[in-house]
Design brief:
This protein is α+β, with helices and mostly antiparallel strands. The chain is built from 15 helices and 19 strands. Helix 11 runs antiparallel to helix 12.
């Protein structure tokens, strides 16, 4: 039987996809098998780069158990490390032979004030829980990560930022919190009481105490119309300045750069959520409003996980995924009506990845807005020269802010979040470490910063250039915690023993 050329090509491509599916499924199944048995005291974060064998795990369902654990640590001279969902990837959430506080079971919502638009929660509460509670009252979160799986305590400890261009980091939306100190006392912390601790503990990576409960500001759960447009990355700073910054009708905004090997960063698409007024033509009829206020669950997890797996292992997989993404972007040009809460629940389950051979890591860089095009060009050069397995790049606007001891955006910046896959071998880790240092040098040359929540790959010199006041941060740590009761690998890596 003879096949015409087009039929042959289609069958060949189908065979390639099926072969890739078989290979990927085998790799995935093997990685699961490898992790079926494990030492419960051997703690990893999601990157698997800095494991630690802890002495004891405390699951703090009650405040009393956390207080008792700290008392035990003081009596037995143990280090204490603190973790939520362990998505900080630079050794922030554990330490060898420490008493490890797993805060995920300390997760009750304590109060919601509909009139004041505030919510008080225990620090192990996830953003998904907050969304569910707030949604019932027509309210929404102001600032959180793009995904809702993280704990509030971890988010405060990393001083996260989100996709709402009207706000900087989460510290702007925190009213107050209670902090369990190294000496066992519990302090009320806000902008008027223990104000120094307010700026140290938020973005302090658990080094100043255990955040117990937090009161956060909420906002209205508005309806948006979202549109996606293509733009040249060289024009993006002007677009931010003229269309996004200070715009009262823009609720959320982000962009993506293409990560395809043969067209790296050549394409850029931006998605903007504009507030929808009741007088607008697209505003839903009254009887249809409940459908938009119902929280959506993630769909097509297996499909999306499969395609991301192809991107990890094959260049043609990256091209395929991007072409599919472009089709979705084309459909989104017409606009979609969505609530703020649902817009802040993007797919995340498909990103879960567990392999004994390689890992997905995040890196994030804050670049002064006007210098964005130059950095994109320099980043492209490094990615290509170092053959970095880059899977995705998102871009978010982070306006200038002045709170937080380790402030990462003292001027308007564009934050680039890189999703990278690399080998867990010694050579693989060493390679991505030196490549990261090249990227950080490019960032520093433009007056930018790197996000401290991720890998401890930057050198001591680089971190001090990015954060000139980090030594004063460590000095404050030693003032509030002279015995260094609260400890993690990030602190051990970068503290100057002479400070």
């Amino acid at each position: 039987m003879h096949l015409d050329h087009q039929t042959y090509k289609k069958r060949r491509n189908l065979a390639l996809i099926l072969s890739a599916a078989l290979i990927y499924s085998t790799i995935f199944t093997y990685s699961i098998y490898q992790n079926l048995t494990h030492d419960e005291l051997l703690i990893h974060d999601v990157s698997q780069l800095f494991p630690a064998h802890v002495k004891e795990i405390v699951e703090g369902e009650e405040e009393e158990s956390l207080v008792a654990a700290l008392q035990q640590a003081n009596e037995e001279d143990l280090k204490v490390s603190i973790a939520g969902t362990r998505h900080s990837q630079g050794g922030h959430a554990f330490y060898e032979d420490s008493l490890w506080l797993d805060m995920t079971s300390y997760n009750e919502i304590l109060a919601l004030d509909e009139d004041e638009k505030t919510i008080t929660v225990q620090s192990g509460v996830t953003w998904e829980q907050i969304q569910e509670a707030a949604n019932e009252h027509g309210l929404s979160v102001k600032v959180m990560q793009s995904s809702n799986i993280f704990t509030v305590g971890g988010s405060l400890s990393s001083n996260v930022h989100g996709r709402d261009p009207n706000y900087g980091p989460i510290i702007e939306t925190v009213d107050s919190f209670r902090l369990l100190m190294a000496d066992g006392t519990i302090q009320e912390v806000n902008r008027d009481e223990n104000e120094e601790l307010f700026e140290l503990a938020i973005g302090g990576f658990g080094l100043f105490g255990v955040i117990l409960d937090v009161t956060l500001e909420l906002t209205d759960d508005e309806l948006y119309v979202s549109t996606t447009e293509k733009i040249d990355y060289k024009d993006y700073p002007d677009y931010i300045e003229n269309e996004i910054k200070g715009s009262e009708d823009v609720g959320l905004h982000y962009a993506r750069l293409s990560a395809t090997p043969n067209g790296l960063f050549e394409d850029m698409y931006m998605t903007t959520y504009h507030s929808l007024k009741k007088t607008d033509e697209l505003y839903p009829k009254e009887e249809n409003l409940p459908e938009f206020s119902t929280l959506q669950e993630e769909k097509n997890v297996r499909r999306d996980r499969f395609f991301l797996g192809l991107s990890r292992h094959f260049d043609w997989g990256k091209n395929l995924v991007w072409s599919l993404q472009q089709r979705l972007y084309a459909e989104a040009e017409e606009g979609e009506v969505i609530s703020r809460n649902n817009a802040m629940r993007p797919p995340v389950e498909f990103l879960e990845y567990d392999s004994s051979r390689n890992t997905d890591i995040l890196q994030e860089y804050f670049i002064p807005t006007d210098d964005f095009p130059q950095f994109v060009e320099e980043l492209k050069t490094i990615v290509e020269a170092e053959n970095i397995n880059l899977l995705n790049v998102t871009v978010r606007f982070t306006p200038e802010h002045d709170e937080g001891h380790l402030n990462y955006a003292t001027e308007d910046t564009l934050a680039l979040v890189l999703l990278i896959n690399h080998s867990l071998s010694d050579d693989g880790v060493a390679h991505i470490e030196q490549a990261t240092q090249q990227i950080v040098d490019a960032v520093l040359d433009l007056g930018g910063t790197h996000y401290l929540t991720y890998q401890k790959f930057p050198t001591n010199e680089q971190i001090r250039e990015a954060y000139p006041n980090i030594d004063s941060f460590f000095e404050e740590k030693q003032k509030y915690d002279p015995d260094e009761r609260f400890m993690n690998y990030f602190y051990e890596e970068y503290v100057d023993e002479q400070s």
